Amino acid sequence: MSQNLVDLTSRAFSDSLAARTATPGGGSLAALMVADAAALLCMVARFSTGEAYAEVSSAMEARCAAGERVRQRALELVDLDARSYDAVSAAFKLPKADDEQKAVRSAAIQSASKGALETPLETMERACEVLECLVATTAGSNKNLVTDLASGGLAAHAGLEAAWLNVRINAGSIKDKPWVDERLARGEVLRQRARAALESLHAHVQTALA
User: Which of 86, 123, 132, 154 could anchor a disulfide with 163, C-beta 3.0 to 4.6 Å?
Assistant: First the structure.
């Protein structure tokens, strides 16, 4: 890639997704959804500070700072996911004319596949962080922005589930079973936490809209 994906316009990024190219794909989109969810978290937090929100202002400032950290990292993961996949593709293209080349190629594929799994797994971690912070932000935040909290939660959860699919498909190429099993277990825990957070957020939103 000659240009970072996150530096593209929204239209250009969409065009890149639509193109007949391996990257960017679902993993990059997942990370972008997490970044946008974090952005909504920051927006709600910023609208929940000042004199009218004196009791929660400090907490909201802290959540905004946390959201910004996640947002910046998630934006990095947009490009990192594409590069991780490109590394796998490059490893498969290595020569395999003799046993030595085959061994080098096999090792490169395994190493690149692990990297391609670690990236969406981190996307899941950042998504879960956003979801749980969104839930915490419901206490005392600007009531006019409740649907923005909900939109952020849905985006973060969708990003997490999309990233999980990328974790699973990359797991199938890795021979180190204990390594894979530990990460799949971690992913399932993150999914459970995310579902709980989304349910809590949904309940809050339904109450606010009633």
Answer: 123
